Model the fold of this input.
Amino acid sequence: MSISLLLDMAASGSPDRTAFIADRETVSFVQFSARVDRAGAAITASGAKTVVYLGGSNLALPTLLFAAAHAGVPFAPLNYRLSATQLERLLGRLADPLVVIESRYRDMLSATRNNIVTVEEFSDLTAKTEASAPSAVDPESTAVLLFTSGTTSAPKGVVLRHSNLLSYVMGTVEFGSAEDNEGALVSVPPYHIAGIGTILTNVYAGRRIIYLPQFDARKWLDLVKQSGATSAMVVPTMLDMIVDELRGELADVPSLRSLSYGGARMPLPALEAAVRSFEGVGFVNAYGLTETSSTIALLGPDDHREALTSDDPHTRARLGSIGRPVAGIEVELRDSDGRKVGTGEQGELWVRGGQVSGEYMESGSVLDQDGWFPTRDLAYQDDDGYLFVIGRNDDTIIRGGENIAPAEIEDVLIQHPLVRSVAVVGVPNDRWGQATAATVVLQPGADADADALRQFVRTRLRGSRTPDLIVFRDALPTTATGKILRHEIIADIVGDSQTTSLNRF
Done:
């Protein structure tokens, strides 16, 4: 059994319902299924052992995902934002790849590399190929290979097996549950786990997918209205740009009922502004990792509404949580010695379940002997089971022997009315081992003094949590999904002339 089953069920249950709308092209489930059958046959005939896609979010993406499964080979969408050298390195790690590429990226790859076709060429080939029966696929074989963003090291190739993805979809979505009028607007990158997860879950639900190939806040708002999209998912940076585009006005999106966000931490002021702009829309915080086949915890619309309207600090704090684990997922919080910690205590988040892969190309599985995966996220859980992620293990600052989570300081600084965004990192310091440094982006037109911001933090946190240094920048370096590139911030601060005085702290 493979992920092809999801499409087979949708094409059988709702053959004439619209499956995808992309680049002015609309296809039904039965039409899409027929296209996949031919594309799968073309892949089989090519002899490829991996199918690679380099391009944006369009109809080629779901076609290749399901066609690769039809042919019984892994699918690997690559990040088109990488350099030519980085792309060639990734391709060198994949077995006999057939590379399907958008024409605009063709010059990024070596002209001598075999088995490269443009999206248009592959489409022509597919149209001329006679459909064949799908390959017999072992559910434990690899379905998708996704490379992590490599924010702190070289990208790791995550192995997602058919069984992992099927467990995720069937454990979180009810088959054929979408109404005829439902449509999901997708603008997340195709090489992100959310780009894969949204295809599988919406196909299984029978919900049409509407693609926005290149994100733009105004185009996003216009497309939601024009297409009648009822749901959408964005990363925090996208939501921030959408709110900026609205300039305090209410969003004119009468069809939208659900707006999911995830992929990075969402600052509370930005979330509250978004909720005000999208009146009546249910917000969902979806937390997941590539290694877990997408979402493992949710903070749903009711949770958001209750937290926003509550006078109870404990309840209101849930707005900063990732919610509670989804069905089929177990969680544990462990200290540095591997012992479980109690409610309210900080520990590393470990997860277990059928959708959890925890496996990498070349290095294999990192699951422990009982099947638990270390997320590397530091978190705590409250009495009601809500999980609060406070940062990454790797991001922890050790200042004078004291562990400091950057999020603790960031959550205070972001409350300052002049601060638009902030990232706190540890930088080398002779006295303390590491000093705390904050890179701050101010609101447009704002002017703030570093000492005033440090005093703002000092009045709310103990002295050791006050940033030793604050630098101002026009923007924070991030990935396309909004994850902060902390290593670039550290390199910027350490290389800046301002840091010559760091050792005075």
About this structure: The domain at 320-393 is CATH 2.30.38.10 (Luciferase; domain 3).
